[in-house]
Amino acid sequence: MTAQIISGKELSKEIRAELKDEVEQLKEKGITPGLAVILVGEDPASQVYVRNKAKACEKLGIHEITKTLPADTSEEDLLALVEKFNEDPTFHGILVQLPLPKHIDESKVLYAIDPLKDVDGFHPVNVGKLMIGDPYFLPCTPHGIQEMLLRSGNDPARKHVVVVGRSNIVGKPIANILLQKKEGANATVTICHTGTDDIAKYTKDADIVIAATGWPNTVTADMVKDGVVVIDVGVNRVDDPSKERGYRLVGDVDFEGIKEKAAAISPVPGGVGPMTITMLMKNTVRAAKLAHGIED
To answer: Of the residues 25, 27, 29, 53, which is catalytic?
Structure first.
C-alpha cells in the first residue's frame, strides 16, 4: 500500500489563494482586514513565528502591525496595549504571541482580548462557543487539521477518530470540532492521553488517528490498522549527526513504519505546521467580515 501524503504545504497554498481573492473583494467594499501582533521578549522561536505571520499578511494584502515589547514589560502595560487594540477598528484580529515572560499571567492577557478579535480562538467565550457548535473562530491548528482531512478527501463523518493528546491548543478543540453534528465533522471521537491504559487498544480501532503529544514515536506501526489515516501534529527535534545542524525534525508518529500501512498520512515537516498560520489568516479575514456584518 502506498500512502497518500497529505501535504499541508500544498493545501495551504490552495487556501491562501482563496483568501487573497476574499481580501481583494473586501477591499473593493472599503474594508482592509487588519491583524495586530504583540511579541514580548526575544524568544528566537517566537520571533520566527511572528515574522512568518507578517510575511503571510503582506502576501495576502492584510494590514499587519507587530508591537515588540521588552521582556521586562509589566503585565499592566501589556493589558493596556491589548485594550488599545480592542478599541481600534482598523485591527480586526489581535494575537499575543506565546509564551509570555513568567511574571505575566498568560490567562489574564488572553482573556482580555475581545472575543470578536480573538483570532487564535483561546478566549473562554470562543472555547465555549466551539463546545456548543457556534464558534466565532476555530482555533488555528485544529481548524487546519479539519481542512487537511476534508481537502484530501478523508471526510471524518461517521469515522472513528482517535485523538492522542488532550492539550487546550490541539487535543481538546479538534475533538470538539470533529464531534459536532455538522458537515466536515460528525465523527465518533475518542481521546487518549497520559492517563490512558493501553493507548494501542484504541488506536488500532481508529479510522483516523490525530497525534498531538509532543513526543516522537508515540504512535508506531503496530498501533494502527491497515488503511488508517494519520495526521501528525508533533514537531520534535531528534539528534542526527548526519545533518549539518546536528538534528532533524520528526513528528509524534513513526512515519516510515506507518506509511506502509496507512491510506493517508501527513509528513513532518510540511504537514500541519504550514496550515496553522494559514488558518490564522482565515480567522483574520473572518473577523473583518464579522466586524462589518458580512456573512461567510
So the answer is: 53
Does the active-site annotation cover 252?
no
Amino acid at 170: V
The reply to whether the predicted model has a pTM over 0.90 is yes
CATH superfamily of 30-114: Leucine Dehydrogenase, chain A, domain 1 (3.40.50.10860)
Considering all CA atoms of the chain, what is the largest pairwise distance in Å, rounded to the nearest integer? 57
- Domain 140-273 bears CATH identifier 3.40.50.720: yes
Q: In the chain, where does the domain assigned CATH 3.40.50.10860 lie?
A: 30-114
pLDDT in tens, 195-245: 999 999 999 999 999 999 999 999 999 999 999 999 999 988 888 888 888
Taking the C-alpha atoms of residue 172 and residue 152, their distance in angstroms, rounded to an integer, is 23
Asked about 239 being catalytic, the answer comes back as no
Residue 53 annotated among the catalytic residues of the structure: yes
* Catalytic residue (choose from 97, 172, 207, 232): 97
Cα–Cα nearest to 39, from 52, 23, 28: 52
Among candidate residues 117, 118, 120, 259, the one labeled active-site is 120
